[in-house]
Amino acid sequence: MDRHSVSGLPFVKMHGAGNDFVVIDSRSRPGGAAVTAALARALGDRNRGVGFDQLAQILPDADADYRLVFWNADGSQAGACGNASRCVAELMMTGLGREAVCFATARGTLEARREGAGVTVNMGHPQLDWDRVPLAQAVDTLHLPLDGDPAAVGMGNPHCVFFVPDAQAVALETLGPRVEHDPLFPERTNVEFASVIGPDRLRMRVWERGTGVTLACGSGACATAVAAHRRGLTGRRVTLDLDGGTLVVDWRDDGVWMTGPVARVFDGVLSPEWLAAT
User: Fold this and answer.
1) Cα–Cα distance between 22 and 71 in angstroms, integer?
2) How far apart are the C-alpha atoms of 193 and 210, rounded to whole Å?
3) Which CATH architecture group holds 3-123+262-277?
């Protein structure tokens, strides 16, 4: 029995543009272990746990300031999470007294820094080849063979982007899970619906795999901006209005940078009794 099972498990609740996260710092734990699929599912329950869109676990890393592992509310893992990356970067920059950090993810080593009142993160280069997204077969990622003519973009996790006349009118709860589980996506997919409201502005809504409807999605915003530019709908720098707020995506030569607000909502401790029951 380790000390956390006796004293409880500390966590931080944060959000970026309404995309909310539980952050658990596992750097001081033996082997870095603290989060399991069962714990992620229990914590993600908004009635019996804390509730989150994703859980971000901080681990030590020999070649970066820290490493991040992302968990969905259904207990599955995600390879990338842009808004959680920005939130944890703010937490770590404050703790380290720094204005920039680098951190390791399944996507690779990424960089984040403060920018104005928000935090910006380089989410890396988009994955545009069908086998990197990944898709189940060789198809044109800019025009998938699905109803609605969506595009596919990998941002460390798969995304399927639809361009529609009115994103607000889309039935996310119906269409999202249907596309998430389409056989074309062997690892399931995040699903974005976007409408063009200006030459460099999009309205976007999102269904996240393993979670459902969320108020924002950072990697989804990046994927949508990349797809919009590839379709000739926008430039490389795009402002996206999501249900929870506004994000700015800039597809540069060194990667896709995403900027937006972050908020530290509260700190808490999971009780030993609750942990024992999960």
Assistant:
1) 10
2) 17
3) Roll (3.10)
Read off the pLDDT of residues 190-212 as tens digits, 9 standing for 90 and up.
999 999 999 999 999 999 999 99
- CA–chain centroid gap for 227, Å, is 17
CB burial of residue 26 (10 Å; 0-12, 13-18, 19+): buried
H or E element at residue 42? helix 37-44
The answer to whether domain 151-253 has CATH 3.40.50.970 is no
**In whole angstroms, what is the distance from residue 43 CA to residue 221 CA?**
25
For the chain, residues with pLDDT lower than 50 are 1-4
196: helix, strand or coil: strand
Is the peptide bond preceding residue 272 cis, with omega within 30 degrees of 0? no
Q: Which residues are catalytic?
A: 81, 217
How many CB atoms sit inside 10 A of residue 268's CB?
14
| Strand 54-59 relative to strand 100-105, pairing | unpaired
Q: Is the pTM of this model over 0.70?
A: yes
Q: In sequence order, what are the beta bridge partners of 111? A: 102, 122
Mean pLDDT, the chain, rounded, equals: 95
The counts of H helices and E strands in the chain are 6, 17
Phi, psi of 207 (to 5 degrees): -115, 120
Domains 3-123+262-277 and 151-253 belong to one CATH topology: yes
- For the chain, which residues make up each domain, given as ranges? 3-123+262-277, 151-253
Residue 216 and residue 58: Cα distance in Å, rounded? 22
Neighbour-count burial of 245, counting CB atoms closer than 10 A to its CB (0-12 exposed, 13-18 middle, 19+ buried): middle
Rounded CA Rg of the chain: 18
Tokens 């409807």 appear where?
Answer: 213
Question: Chain-centre distance of CA 167, in angstroms?
Answer: 20
